[in-house]
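To fix ideas, we reproduce below one chain and its tokenised fold.
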Amino acid sequence: QVHLGESGGGFVQPGGSLRLACVASKMTFNMYDMSWYREAPGKGRDLVATITEGGTLQYADYAKGRFTISRDNGANAVYLEMNNLTPEDTAVYYCHAKLIVGRTYEYWGQGTQVTVTA
């Protein structure tokens, strides 16, 4: 079955950087639009960034200029480079895959915790 495995979360000081990775298995990775979502304590899950199967990028306003999403289809991986982190970026970050071919195929990773604190 499809599996999305995130890594790269952890503790970082304000102004620091982290690089999240998500490796997919049991799926035709290059056909999927890949996204990162995040869920902060007491808040809903919101979209951080998307990279489509064609390479089109989309970012939440707070991510523009600080975060970069990229993908390596050969490695079945999607990345989120996060710079100039603030405590407001503290959240569980989730990898998401979506493909619409007649029906919708949609998968989530288990999440990785990012904590920005002094």
